[in-house]
Amino acid sequence: MIHKLHYCYFVLLISVITSSSIAPCIAQGNDDVFFIKNIYDHSLQNGQCYQWLTHLSEDIGGRLAGSPGAAAAVEYTKQVMSEQGFAAVSLQPCMVPHWVRGDTEVAKIVNSERIGTITLAATSLGNSIGTGPGGITGRVIEVMSLDELMELDPADVDGKIVFFNRPMDPTQLHTFRAYGGAVDQRGSGPAKASSMGAAAAIVRSMTTRADDIPHTGVTVFGEGDRLIPAMAISTNAADQLSALMKHEDVTLYLENHCELKADKKSYNVIGEIKGSKYPEEIILVGGHLDSWDIGGGAHDDGSGCVHSIQSMVTLLELGYEPQRTWRCVMFMNEENGLGGALAYAAESNQKGEYHMAAIESDAGGFTPRALAVGGDKDIFEQKFPAVRAWRDMLSSYGVELTPGGGGADINPLKSQRGLLFGLRPDSQRYFDYHHTAIDRIEAVNQRELELGAAAMSSLVYLLDKYGIDGE
Amino acid sequence: MIHKLHYCYFVLLISVITSSSIAPCIAQGNDDVFFIKNIYDHSLQNGQCYQWLTHLSEDIGGRLAGSPGAAAAVEYTKQVMSEQGFAAVSLQPCMVPHWVRGDTEVAKIVNSERIGTITLAATSLGNSIGTGPGGITGRVIEVMSLDELMELDPADVDGKIVFFNRPMDPTQLHTFRAYGGAVDQRGSGPAKASSMGAAAAIVRSMTTRADDIPHTGVTVFGEGDRLIPAMAISTNAADQLSALMKHEDVTLYLENHCELKADKKSYNVIGEIKGSKYPEEIILVGGHLDSWDIGGGAHDDGSGCVHSIQSMVTLLELGYEPQRTWRCVMFMNEENGLGGALAYAAESNQKGEYHMAAIESDAGGFTPRALAVGGDKDIFEQKFPAVRAWRDMLSSYGVELTPGGGGADINPLKSQRGLLFGLRPDSQRYFDYHHTAIDRIEAVNQRELELGAAAMSSLVYLLDKYGIDGE
Questions:
Q1: pLDDT tens across A102-132, in order?
Q2: CA distance A361 to chain B (A)
Q3: Which of B183, B167, B108 lies closest to B140 in space, CA to CA?
Q4: Given a cut of 60, is residue A5 above it in pLDDT?
Q5: Record: contact A398-B263, CB cut-off 8 A
Q6: How far apart are CA A246 and CA B262, in angstroms?
Q7: B10 and A187: CB-CB below 8 Å?
Q8: Which of B11, B15, B17 would you mutate first to test chain A, the one with the most A CBs within 10 A?
Q9: What percent of chain A clears pLDDT 70, i.e. is strictly above it?
Q10: Burial label, B21 (beta-carbon count in 10 A; 0-12, 13-18, 19+)
Q11: Disruptive mutation site among B16, B171, B223, B431 for chain A (greatest number of A CBs within 10 Å)
Q12: Cβ contact B384:B421 at 8 Å
C-alpha cells in the first residue's frame, strides 16, 4: 500500500528540487548585488506589466498608426506614465501613414481538378492596395527568392500572381536570424513582382511553425513603383499550394479592400525625469506603441512598452533618484514607417542632445536571455568593457551581456555616440505569434514578462549609477 | 506617402535582427563542434518529439500508474523505441499503487452570510481517501505551515477541515525552489492534520499564478496514520476563502470518491544498445511515463519521455555508434510511489552494474537552460572538471553546465558512483501547468521541446565519446 511505502521518496524529491541555488557574483560591489535583488523581488511581486499589457492588448487591441486604437494607446500610456511618477509626460507629434485593411480578404484556388475550390488562410500586407470588389484572378508562379524571380522572363510574369515560398530556416537557434533570412520576400517581393509586371503577390507567412495562421507585416514599394495587392498566406496553405502546383497549373482569386489614405498626425509619448547630477546625459528606454491591426500586439510590441515603463517605475518605487535624465518613450509607427523614431531623433539631434544609452525592447515578452550592446563601432569598442564588468550581476538572473544591440526605433540615435541596447528574450515562440491574430495576452506569461522589465531596470540602475566610462 | 518614404528603415531593421550570431567555442575540438551543430540541425528539422508527445498526451492522455492509460503508454513507447533503432526493448516489472480518483469532486462554502453558497475549484490529492456519498461538512481552520498547525491545541483541530494556505514564493527565480518551499503542505499536511484529529485537509494549489485551476499531486500518509480526504483548491479559491475567513467562520462541504485499491503490476520500458568498446559503462537517459490523471501530462513528464527517446534516436540517425551501453528508460510511477525507479535500481545493483552517467528530464518541455550535474559528493568533485570542459560547446546553444543534477528516478543509482544529470528547462511557465488539466500539448512549443532533446543528445554524445574521467 502506498501510504505505508516510500515516505522517503517525497523527501528525496524535495531535496532534489531545492538543491540548485542562485549565487550572485560580486562585481561593482555588494550594494549593487542587493539592489538588483530588490529590483527582481519587486518586479516579481509588484510589477504591473501584465495588467497594463492586458489593457493595451485586449481592451484597446490592435493599434496600427493612424487608427483609433493607436490614439487610445497614446492616451492610455500618457495616463499611466503620469500616474507612475514621471515628472513630465509629453506628446511629440509625428506624421504617420494611414493604411486601412478594409473588410473582406479572400485568397482561393479556383481551378483545381484535384481539390476543387479551396480557400487559403490569408491576410493583406501593410501597404498593399486593394484589388477592388472584382478581385484579381491570375495564374500563380512560385519562386523561392527575389533572385529567382528576377531571372525570369518578364513575359512569363506579366499578369501573374507571384508566390514567394522560401521558408524560414528552422535550424537557426535565434529565430530572428531565420526571420532575417526570409523576410526580404515579404518586404521587397511585391515591389519586385510589380517591376516584372505581376498582377499581385502572395508570400509564405514568416514563421517556422506549420499552421493555419497568416502573418501580416509591411511590404515596401519604391517611389514610382506600380502598386499591387499583396497578401501573406499561412504556412500550411503555402505548402498545400506548392504541392498542388507540382501537378497542375493553379489559378488564384484574390480580393481585398486595402487603402492607403493621406498621412496623419500622431504622437510619441515621452515620460521624463531630469537627472540630479548629469542632466545632459540621457538614458532612454522604449518600445513601440503601434501594432498590427489583426491581433492585440501583446508581444509585438505591447510587451516592450510595458517593459519600458515598468523598468523605470520599479526604480522609482524602490526610492532610487536619477542622477542622469531618464526618458521612457512609446514610439509610434515602427511597423510601417518609423515616423515616430525619425521625429524623435530629428528633434533630439536638433537640440544637440546626448543619449548616453538607449535600451529598446521589441522582441517579445518571453524570459529575458540577454541584453545586447551596440552602437557606433569605435564607441562600442571604447565603452563595452565598462558595461561588461556588470555581466556577473546580470548572468545571476540568466541574462547575458552580448554584442549586437540596438533596435529599429533607437538606431537613429547612433550618431549621438552613446550605447544602444536591445533586450533579447527567448526567441523560440516569438514567430508563433508575430503579426498575427493570436498575438494576445494569452500568449504572454506574467512572470516572463515582469522578468524582462527587471532586466531592463537593472541595466538602467547600473547605467545611471556608473555611466559608461568605467567610473 | 509611405511607399515613397523610408525604404531605408526596412533594410535597417533587417541588419539589426541579423547582427547577433552563434559563435561556438572550441573545447574538445572542431569535430565535436560540428557534430553538435549537426545534432541541433537534425533535432530542429527532423525531431519527432512533438509528434510522439501529441500521441502520448492527447491520444493516450492521463496515465497514472495502474490505469489503462499507463498500460497504453507502456505499449506505445515500447513500439516507438522498437521502431527507432534500439537493439532491444524490454519491459521491467514493478509493483505500483492503484489509486483511483472517482467521479464527483466537490468543495463548497455552505454557510456564508456574505457570499452564500460558493463552489471552489478543487481536485483530490493522490492517496486521498473518499468522503463517501455523504461528504464531509466541517469548520475550516487556516494555517500557513505545518509548524503552525502542530502548535494548535488538538481540541481545536478535532473534526475540522485544515486549510494549508502558504503561497509559493514568487521572488524565487527558479520556480522549483518556490515549489520546494511550499509543497510540504501538500505532501505532509494532510497526514499532520490527521494526527491532530482533523476530518479532512485542503491545500492551496502549488503555483504562483492567480487562477481557477486546481493542481493535484501526491500526499503521503505514514504507516498507521488515519487516512483522511485531501484536496487542493485553486489559488483564486484559496484567496477567496482566506479573505472570507477574516469576516466569518466558514463551513465547507467536501465530497470525493477516491479509492486506494490493491497494488498492481506495471512496467518500466527500457530500450538498450550495447556499447562496442565499453559495454559495462552505462549511459542512461530517462523520464517518467506515468502522469496525473486530470490532464495529458504533456510537460510532466511526457516531455521527458520523448526527450529521452529522441536524444538517442538523433545520434543513431546521424550514424553515431555507441561505444558505451545506452539505455533509454521510461520510468513508471514517479508521481505516487517511485515503484519503477526503485525496481530499476534494485535489479541494476543486484547485477553489479555501473551507470557511468544517468540523465533525467523531468522539468518540462521548455527552452533548455542548463544541464545540472550531481552525484555522490566525492565523485562529483572528482569527475565534474572533465564534464565542465564541455561547457563552451553547450553554452553556444544557451545551455549551461551547473552543479545540482539528478532527479527522483535516477537518484537511487547514486550509489553506483557515476554522475547524475538533470535537464533544466526554463522554469517560469512550468507551474502554470504542473499536475493540472491544462498540462496538454497546446502548452508545449515544438522548437523548445526539440531543443531539450538536442541538449540531451549533445551530452550523450560527449559522455559516450569521452567518458567522465577526462580522457
A1: 998 999 999 999 999 999 999 999 999 999 9
A2: 13
A3: B108
A4: no
A5: no
A6: 60
A7: yes
A8: B17
A9: 94
A10: exposed
A11: B16
A12: no
Would you say residue A26 has pLDDT above 70? no
Sorted by where each starts, the structural domains of chain A and their CATH numbers stand as 30-99+262-466 (3.40.630.10), 102-257 (3.50.30.30)
**Contact by Cβ (8 Å): B299, B364:** yes
For residue A372, is pLDDT > 60?
yes
Chain B, nearest residue to A395 by Cα? B400
- What's residue B144's pLDDT? 98
Tell me: pLDDT of A1 over 90.
Answer: no
Q: Of the candidates A272, A236, A262, A10, which has an alpha carbon nearest to the alpha carbon of residue A120? A: A236
Digit-by-digit pLDDT tens for chain B (471 residues) are: 333 334 334 433 444 444 433 334 444 578 999 999 999 999 999 999 999 999 999 999 999 999 999 999 999 999 999 999 999 999 999 999 999 999 989 999 999 999 999 999 999 999 999 999 999 999 999 999 999 999 999 999 999 999 999 999 999 999 999 999 999 999 999 999 999 999 999 999 999 999 999 999 999 999 999 999 999 999 999 999 999 999 999 999 999 999 999 999 999 999 999 999 999 999 999 999 999 999 999 999 999 999 999 999 999 999 999 999 999 999 999 999 999 999 999 999 999 999 999 999 999 999 999 999 999 999 999 999 999 999 999 999 999 999 999 999 999 999 999 999 999 999 999 999 999 999 999 999 999 999 999 999 999 999 999 999 986
What is the C-alpha to C-alpha distance for residues A299 and A443, in angstroms, rounded to an integer?
8
Cβ distance of A188 and B10 shorter than 8 Å:
yes
Q: From chain A, pick out residues whose CB is under 8 angstroms from the CB of B451.
A: 173, 428
Give the torsion sign (CA, A50, A359, A399, B453): positive
CB spacing of B448 vs A429 below 8 angstroms: yes
Nearest to A258 by CA among A205, A190, A198: A190
Contacts with A341 from chain B: Cβ below 8 Å: 9
Give the containing element (helix H, strand E) for B425: strand B419-425
Contacts of B258 in chain A (CB under 8 A): none
Q: Which ipTM did the prediction report?
A: 0.93
Residue numbers in A near B335 (CB within 8 A): none
Determine whether the interchain pair B220/A171 forms a contact, defined as Cβ–Cβ distance below 8 Å: no
Closest residue to B180, CB basis, from A4, A18, A218: A18
Task: Give contacts of B422 with chain A, Cβ < 8 Å.
Answer: 16
Chain B residues with beta carbon closer than 8 angstroms to that of A176: 17-18, 20
Chain B residue whose CA is closest to A262: B1
Let me know: does B371 contact B394? Beta carbons within 8 Å: yes
Helix axes A30-46, A446-466, angle to 10 degrees: 150
The reply to whether residue B223 touches residue A3, judged by beta carbons under 8 angstroms, is yes
**Element of type H or E holding B302:** none
Q: Are A54 and A441 in contact (CB under 8 A)?
A: yes
Q: Which three cell numbers stand for residue A446?
A: 506574467
Hey, are the CB atoms on B17 and A170 less than 8 Å from each other? no
Task: State the residue for C-alpha cell 526554463.
Answer: B426
Residues of A whose CB is below 8 A from B367: 367, 426, 428
The single residue listed with the C-alpha cell 547524475 is B420
Write out chain B residues lying below 8 Å of A397, CB-based: 173
CB contact under 8 A, B398 and A127: no
* Distance in Å, alpha carbon of A174 to nearest chain B alpha carbon: 8
Is A343 or A19 the better-scoring residue by pLDDT?
A343
Contact B3 A127 (CB under 8 A): yes
Task: Please confirm whether the linkage preceding B409 is cis (ω < 30° from 0).
Answer: no
Closest CA to B324 of B357, B283, B275: B275
Q: Do B448 and A432 touch (CB under 8 A)?
A: no
State whether A170 and B45 contact (CB < 8 Å). Answer: yes
